[in-house]
Amino acid sequence: MRLAELSARSGVSTATIKYYLREGLLAPGRQLNATTAEYDETHLRRLRLVRALIQVGRVPVASAREVLKHVDDESLGRTIRLGAALWALPQAPDPDEEDPATAAAAAEVDRLLRTLGWDAAREIGALSPVHRSLVALVATQIRLGYPCDAETMAPYAELMRQAAARDLDRMETYESDTEMIESAVSSAVLFEPVLRALHRLAQEEESARRYGLE
Amino acid sequence: MRLAELSARSGVSTATIKYYLREGLLAPGRQLNATTAEYDETHLRRLRLVRALIQVGRVPVASAREVLKHVDDESLGRTIRLGAALWALPQAPDPDEEDPATAAAAAEVDRLLRTLGWDAAREIGALSPVHRSLVALVATQIRLGYPCDAETMAPYAELMRQAAARDLDRMETYESDTEMIESAVSSAVLFEPVLRALHRLAQEEESARRYGLE
């Protein structure tokens, strides 16, 4: 398809598509002549992901480019490729190593992962920005005096493991690793807020059931 | 305790405490004489919540005041008091009623709630900003062409209902309704990010188990 059709089908203006092309967020089309290029379904799919990242997730262009670089890196194994793409998304801040609550939080997170038998997550450890941000978040709770120990977190972590298993089951229905990793990235940006809203709605439902609707 | 001790025990500077008092985020102490006031454990507890809202959650002062007004309103029933406090927190944007994806999303959310038998959530419906933001989030996915129907969401919603039941179990260990609602608010600000980090960490664990650590 030509640029005009790509724009019509994706709902993205031709000016914005040209901007994404210049910024390296979208691969160039197949050049038919000096002024015309041909685009295909992979461009349409990628454009959807770029919109999810930039327009919805408000991911900075440089981060989005980094994410897409990993999505496209077929030299990596699946776990590393998936991890690298997700790690390139904006993360919560790293823990403050000066704060004594950080050491306490790191110990709780380690105890949690042992309790759960999450050996891979323990092995990856602080290499993962996700692990580091979990430590930082637990440290904040400890510093403010709210309880957030391994026992409190464990049952929630089990529920999240069930959610993660379902995430990967869904991803495995895609034909290629690239599509699978694209879907993981779009889920991280688009589906995580849905999950949070479902959690809050579930709290309303549960509260109304227990205490009545007044 | 005097102001100096309240500051030492809470880790909040006296200048900041005075600011919170002026802004009505913290109730005045019991005035002992023209220059000295006496504070107690309820001030310490409230200060912890104000820090969670303002310093960690970056909730605007006006919203924080609104949240605390509902936390303290003993004339309300438990569900409404809880809901009002949580609804006063900053919410995701409302759906765009002009967008045709919004009607499709509202239908999917309604179908989801029917499937799940969440009758209270259906009855509250679009009165709840949580319900509205769920519709908006689903509409975004539909608009971008990602699948997000009732069948996709239902199993995640079931997991979130289990999480919500656990949330309320934890809250019910508090002695007073006020403490219970304070803890619900602090959880919404502090524990939701922990849950999100646990979900991402679970994805890493599950991915490493299925595809190996490379």
UniProtKB/TrEMBL annotation, chains A, B:
SUPFAM superfamilies: Putative DNA-binding domain
Highest taxon of source: Bacteria
Annotated keywords: DNA-binding
The keyword Manganese is annotated on this UniProt entry: no
Protein name as it appears in the record: MerR family transcriptional regulator
Source organism of the structure: Streptomyces ossamyceticus
Gene3D superfamilies recorded: 1.10.1660.10
InterPro entries from the UniProt entry: DNA-bd_dom_put_sf, MerR-type_HTH_dom, MerR_fam
Domain HTH merR-type: 1-70
The keyword DNA-binding is assigned to this record: yes
